[in-house]
Design goal:
It contains eight helices and seven strands, in the order βαβαβαβαβαβαβαα. The protein is an alpha/beta fold. The chain has one domain (about 1-235): NAD(P)-binding Rossmann-like Domain (Rossmann fold, 3-Layer(aba) Sandwich). A seven-stranded parallel sheet has the order 3-2-1-4-5-6-7, with helices on both faces. Helix 2 (about 35-50) links the parallel strand 2 (about 25-30) and strand 3 (about 50-55). The radius of gyration is 17 Å and the shape is globular. Bound molecules: NADP nicotinamide-adenine-dinucleotide phosphate.
């Protein structure tokens, strides 16, 4: 049984490879940069003495996703867990639509495309977990990042539906809504709120997976913050600079 990590050059994804590797799982490392994926896989293999394999993977190469999943299973055996960790925050609302198009393609279409390919094989077996990394930005549209937020929010809704569809088939689907985490994505950002480490995220996610939770906010206080933000009426919210 193997664990597929998609978007493995992310520090969060690498820490997840460590958590599942140290628990004895075979790890398939997938990233746009195939050489870097191979390096990460070799590191996990040496540290935890588990079977690993790697390949290049592009979230936007939609047509190739079913064949990619077949190849992963051919190399490392039946997929037990697939973690969709890739993401693209883009340049923000002032950028041109090409940037927005890529952000939507990566965070929503690409994520849904690979989730569908994984769901097909897991549903047929009646076993497995699909874990999607999304963002608190997906809970409410804000002027500062609504393209990224809407793509992540759409992925969150997609995961809800997938969980609802696959529950009776024995497949677990977990949504992970992250607040600020110390990675390339947040480098140089003034957050004003505590920033989690990728290692802390990986430990919380691993524990939540062991308990087969449906959804997780991490850091957990973000569940409360977003509850308040979602409750602000639109006529007030539109006047705020968020
Ligand atoms: N950091 C935060 O505060 C935060 C908050 C909420 C949610 N998240 C989510 O957490 C996840 C991990 O992000 P991170 O913070 O670790 O940021 P990151 O270092 O920028 O990682 C993003 C990952 O996505 C990959 N990626 C981008 N476009 C891709 C594509 N077309 N195909 C395949 N992979 C692609 C990147 O690969 P390359 O190395 O090739 O660019 C990288 O591995 C993302 O889903 C992100 O949206 C992060």
């Amino acid at each position: 049984m193997s664990v597929l990590i998609l978007g493995a050059t992310s520090r969060i994804a690498q820490q997840l490879a460590h958590r599942f590797g140290e628990a004895g799982h075979a790890i398939f490392v997938a990233a746009r940069d195939a050489d870097e994926a191979a390096r990460i896989a070799a590191d996990v293999a040496v540290r935890y003495r588990v079977p690993t394999a790697s390949a290049g993977f592009d979230a936007r190469a939609f047509e190739g996703h079913p064949a990619f999943v077949a190849d992963v299973e051919a190399q490392l055996g039946a997929l037990e867990v697939a973690i969709i960790a890739f993401g693209d925050m883009g340049a923000g609302p002032t950028a041109d639509f090409a940037d927005a198009h890529r952000v939507i393609d990566v965070n929503f279409t690409g994520a849904a495309s690979i989730a569908e390919a994984v769901a097909t094989v897991m549903e047929a077996r009646g076993d497995g977990s699909i874990i999607g990394l999304t963002s608190v930005a997906g809970d409410r549209g804000r002027q500062s990042n609504y393209v990224y937020g809407s793509a992540k929010g759409a992925f969150g809704l997609y995961l809800q539906g997938l969980r609802n569809r696959l529950f009776s088939k024995g497949v677990h689907v977990m949504t992970v809504k992250l607040g600020f985490v110390d990675t390339r994505m947040t480098f140089g950002m003034e957050t004003g709120l505590p920033v989690a480490s990728p290692e802390a995220v990986s430990r919380a996610l691993f524990r939540a997976w062991e308990r087969r939770e449906d959804a997780l906010y991490y850091p957990r206080f973000w569940g409360g913050i977003m509850g308040v933000i979602k409750a602000i009426p639109e006529r007030i919210f539109k006047r705020l600079s968020l």
